[in-house]
């Protein structure tokens, strides 16, 4: 069944996809009359060329690790969780409630509580679509997408009517108290050159821990085996005594919880208050990250770093080369998603063929 | 290696900060877009005017979402831009947090007061300008019913509405003023379709002059008013040219002057932190008269509104500011 060595599957194909995407992007940039080499240079330098760039790249990557893992876990059970956006938004609500309701003496106490709050709210938001899928057969893609809209409407309502600071005009919560603010990279990484502006914070380490935890869960536990078995063949899993309702529910709760954790980074770590649209599309980027990372935690980590760099590099490109508008940057990001996700088989087929021929030659 | 590079990067940023006095100014265009024909465009025009007159250059970036404010502001400050001008009340809490991290950078915020030693807060007396266009609306109305469409439902926009209603009632105490807001989130600044819907609803209630204080949403209001054949009043920028013959006047709020003066002061090294109030007396707000709306403004209208303006400046007429107590005597 394995026609390719594992390294080719994990590294070579994404690399070819990425190169193709960047080539087409360069073509588009050339078409609008800008210098593609210069643009690529600005993007790369902006993303990884300075401590400032790294601060933002790793911050964005942290968001994408959480949402990417969320999609990856669900994907192992062949559940396509498109609701990361809404689950992360609700996670933000959970984190904000935790941070604002208790006068935290120190962040070491606030962080675990916020992790719990974010995960619980995110999981709760995934629970209803999961239940509908498990017991009623309502397709999870449809229900989670719909729940994104409900989440966004709910947050607007709460921010405008309930959580807004009285007398303030902006729909946002009060800033979290001192004790609930996470140490940023400036506090623990100033020796690496991180300035005060770095939004990177300790949530990054929570994300790394989640990568390890997901790896252990999927490949080293009985539950993980059940999830994978269920994903490979529902009929066979049932025959082996795996209960589908239970598996769907648990998988989606873990998935939603992971998405909700994103808020620990974005809401508690960076903004230090809940604003409208705190997720900024990271829930959808998570889908691309999981696809590109082949639903493996290490792959998700690497893909998240790439997308973090694309985001930060894109912001920098927009700033340095005003002729390249925000929309152009979305085009570049979309091309990467298109080539790594949708057009994956275009590259996979020929590369597989190449390896098959080589193997035949060898034997 | 990377760490070394990072350190060099950091020193380079510090070096840029030190050269702040000769740095180019920066402008962060707010949500709704650069060409909203209203608030943001006014600021953009101010920056362009400074550009032409000084021959220098400035940095500009455009916000796409609420959550980007901090990165844009920090990026602007780190790039060495000075002063950095941010537009709109929504930036206040972010600026509170960012300004102390860049003590050598001067910031100007329009429409909100941020109390920091390196921040200049420019606020406008929108209620006075709105009072004037209210007077014109009441004189131009045949039905005795006029209306107002706000963008986001915040005290700042109620300040416009309240000034307008007071102006209307000053001319015609029996007039009916309909007030509607487009929404409760920042997307309400850029929803021309809903603006047009609200306008049609107000027309069905008898309104024949509609005043839009809604950023990009106002484009839809003015369009619907022209389509239905009633008069409209533009806001922030002079919008008379959008539908000649249908736009009665525009309540101009000279955000362009605020930006221009901040840039100018920054270049001259005369930046003044603190609160700067722009009203009728220093041409911070006013009503627009040009060839596009000349046929609509009769001599008596012009005389009355000019007289009202003088009396407000002289303190004979006090226009109530909604934001001081959250209530309006006129509705």
UniProtKB/TrEMBL annotation, chain A:
Task: Give the location in the cell.
Answer: Cell membrane
The keyword Transmembrane helix belongs to this UniProt entry's keyword annotation: yes
Q: Is Lyase included in the keywords of this UniProt record?
A: no
Any one GO CC term of this protein is: plasma membrane
Membrane-spanning residues: 12-33, 53-75, 110-128, 140-160, 198-218, 248-268, 274-291, 298-315, 327-347
Which residues, by range, are in coiled-coil regions? none
The record gives the membrane topology as:
Multi-pass membrane protein
Report the protein name in the record: Sugar ABC transporter permease
**Alphabetical UniProt keywords:** Cell membrane, Membrane, Transmembrane, Transmembrane helix
Query: From the Swiss-Prot or TrEMBL record, what is one GO molecular function term?
Result: transmembrane transporter activity
Native organism:
Meridianimarinicoccus roseus
Automatic annotation (TrEMBL), chain B:
Q: What is its main location?
A: membrane
How would you describe this protein's topology in the membrane?
Answer: Lipid-anchor
Subcellular location as annotated: Cell membrane
The signal peptide here is: 1-20
Q: Which domain of life is it from?
A: Bacteria
Read off the InterPro entries from this record.
Answer: BMP_lipoprotein, Peripla_BP_I, PnrA-like
- Pfam families documented for this protein: Bmp
Q: Which sequence ranges form a coiled-coil region, renumbered to this chain?
A: none
Keyword Lipoprotein (UniProt): yes
For whether the record's keyword set contains Membrane, the answer is yes
Cite the entry's keywords alphabetically: Cell membrane, Lipoprotein, Membrane, Signal
CC annotations in GO: plasma membrane
Domain ABC transporter substrate-binding protein PnrA-like residue range list = 32-319
- Return the similarity comment: Belongs to the BMP lipoprotein family.
What this protein is called in its record is BMP family ABC transporter substrate-binding protein
> Which source organism?
Meridianimarinicoccus roseus
């Amino acid at each position: 069944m394995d026609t390719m060595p594992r390294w080719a599957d994990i590294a070579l194909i994404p690399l070819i996809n990425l190169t193709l995407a960047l080539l087409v992007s360069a073509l588009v940039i050339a078409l609008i009359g800008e210098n593609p080499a210069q643009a690529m240079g600005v993007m790369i330098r902006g993303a990884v060329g300075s401590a400032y760039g790294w601060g933002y790249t790793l911050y964005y990557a942290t968001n994408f690790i959480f949402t990417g893992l969320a999609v990856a876990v669900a994907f192992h059970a062949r559940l396509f969780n498109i609701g990361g956006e809404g689950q992360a938004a609700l996670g933000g609500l959970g984190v904000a409630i935790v941070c604002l309701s208790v006068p935290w003496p120190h962040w070491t106490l606030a962080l675990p509580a916020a992790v719990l709050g974010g995960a619980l709210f995110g999981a709760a938001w995934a629970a209803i679509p999961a239940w509908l899928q498990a017991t009623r057969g309502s397709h999870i893609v449809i229900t989670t997408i719909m729940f994104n809209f409900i989440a966004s409407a709910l947050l607007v309502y709460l921010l405008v009517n309930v959580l807004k600071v009285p007398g303030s005009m902006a729909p946002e919560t009060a800033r979290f108290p001192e004790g609930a603010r996470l140490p940023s990279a400036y506090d623990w990484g100033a020796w690496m050159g991180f300035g005060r502006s770095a939004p990177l914070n300790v949530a990054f380490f929570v994300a790394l821990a989640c990568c390890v935890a997901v790896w252990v869960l999927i490949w080293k536990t009985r539950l993980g085996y059940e999830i994978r078995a269920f994903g490979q063949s529902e009929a066979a899993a049932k025959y082996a005594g795996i209960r589908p309702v239970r598996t769907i529910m648990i998988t989606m709760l873990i998935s939603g919880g992971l998405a909700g954790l994103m808020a620990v980074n974005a809401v508690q770590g960076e903004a230090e208050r809940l604003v409208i649209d705190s997720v900024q599309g990271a829930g959808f980027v998570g889908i691309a990250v999981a696809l590109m990372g082949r639903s493996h935690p290490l792959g998700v980590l690497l893909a998240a770093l790439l997308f973090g760099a694309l985001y930060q590099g894109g912001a920098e490109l927009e700033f340095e080369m005003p002729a390249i508008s925000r929309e152009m940057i979305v085009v570049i990001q979309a091309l990467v998603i298109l080539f790594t996700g949708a057009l994956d088989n275009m590259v996979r087929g020929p590369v597989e063929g190449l390896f098959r021929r080589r193997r035949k030659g060898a034997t | 290696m990377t760490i070394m590079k990072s350190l060099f990067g950091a020193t380079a940023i510090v070096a840029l900060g030190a050269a702040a006095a000769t740095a180019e100014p920066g402008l962060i265009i707010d949500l709704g877009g650069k060409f909203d024909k209203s608030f943001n465009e006014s600021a953009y025009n101010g920056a362009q005017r400074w550009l032409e007159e000084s021959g220098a250059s400035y940095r500009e970036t455009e916000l796409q979402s609420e959550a980007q404010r901090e990165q844009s502001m920090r990026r602007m400050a780190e790039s060495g831009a000075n002063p950095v001008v941010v537009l709109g009340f929504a930036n206040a809490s972010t600026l509170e947090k960012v300004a102390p991290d860049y003590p050598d950078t001067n910031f100007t915020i329009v429409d909100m007061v941020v109390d920091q030693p390196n921040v200049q807060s420019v606020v406008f007396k929108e209620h006075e300008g709105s009072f004037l266009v209210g007077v014109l609306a009441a004189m131009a109305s045949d039905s005795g019913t006029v209306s107002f469409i706000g963008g986001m439902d915040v005290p700042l926009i109620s300040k416009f509405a309240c000034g307008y209603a007071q102006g209307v009632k000053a001319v015609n105490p029996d007039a009916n003023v309909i007030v509607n807001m487009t929404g409760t989130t920042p997307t309400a600044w850029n929803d021309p379709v809903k603006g047009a819907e609200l306008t049609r609803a107000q027309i069905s209630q008898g309104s024949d002059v509609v005043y839009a204080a809604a950023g990009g949403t106002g484009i839809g209001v003015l369009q619907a008013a022209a389509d239905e054949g009633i008069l409209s009043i533009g806001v922030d920028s002079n919008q008379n040219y959008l539908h000649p013959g249908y736009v009665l006047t525009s309540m101009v709020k000279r955000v362009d002057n605020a930006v221009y003066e901040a840039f100018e002061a920054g270049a001259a090294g005369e930046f003044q932190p603190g609160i700067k109030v722009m009203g009728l007396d220093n041409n911070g707000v006013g009503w627009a008269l040009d060839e596009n709306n000349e046929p609509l403004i009769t001599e008596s209208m012009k005389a009355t509104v000019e007289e009202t303006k003088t009396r407000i400046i002289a303190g004979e007429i006090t226009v109530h500011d909604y934001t001081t107590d959250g209530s309006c005597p006129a509705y």
